[in-house]
Write a structure and sequence with these properties.
Blueprint: E1 3-6, E2 14-18, E3 23-25, E4 30-32, E5 36-40, E6 48-51, E7 65-73, E8 80-87, E9 102-109, E10 117-124, E11 129-138, E12 144-153, E13 164-166, E14 169-174, E15 185-186, E16 192-199, E17 205-211, E18 221-228, E19 236-243, E20 262-265, E21 271-279, E22 282-290, E23 301-302
Amino acid sequence: ETTISVDPTSPNNLVGGANDYRYFLPSEGRYDGSGAAYVSHDGGASWTNTFIPGVSEAAGGTYQGLGDPAFAWDPSGNAVYYANIAFNRVANPATGHSAFASSIVVSKSVNKGDTWTTDFVIESDDPNVFHDKEWIGVAPNGDVYVTWALFRFQPKGKTGLGGYEASPIVFSKSTDGGQTWSEPRGISGPFAQFSTPVIAPDGTVYVSYEEWNNPVGRNGGRAMVARSTNGGATWTQHLVARVNDLPSPLHHGAFRAASYPVMDVDDQGNLHMVWSNWQGGSGDIVYTRSTNRAASWSRPVTINQEAVKSD
């Protein structure tokens, strides 16, 4: 789950992240993700990397695993934010976290990615909750928004893990540079996943996500956008298009696949969205846009070109 971001004020300054499994954790008896940041100040010619402090056991923290890296720059270029999920796979009494520990964490760098400080958006040891697949955006005024899917499960029984109940998209906001965060609030229906927050030049907040009528992962998904014009106080939901979900794993493949929409906003406030659509027995990339603040969307068009098969 690799990601990379470019400093808006210095295109040679690059910051990237991945689920980095370089360190062995005795508490698990295996290697696990440790949340590294990869930094280049010369356009990618050379790189340094460091694990963000205070989260994973490999970097002096209390969690065994980190993952789902996402970056967002303050428009001024004075700060870059690095969001991850953090969790435990097995109980570790030495750190005080159970096997069900789950959190959203945001680290911040004010020196172009060379060093980082870390604050938690939320931490939980609730065995029936898992905070998953976060993403992050920064508004023109410096407010920071994090969105994610809050998975809820039925209580565990003697036979093992409880069943899936819901996974609404929730958001949290920081108005002090990531030091403190608001309580999570829902902005979608009960069965959703894969959110992406973006903030327009006028401060309007948009969050794209995929939603289903029944438990997540079934066919019949919809690309959706939630919009707030008042800093997250209220939201409206807007249908973008139907989604034909990719089979997971893909035919003849071993890796997980998903069709979730990804969105961005341009300098004029127009919204642009792409996702993977299963069409005619293969996967295509489709594109749509909105020029009226998510109220309506153009008909999705296929933008990839497939090679013609020949004998």
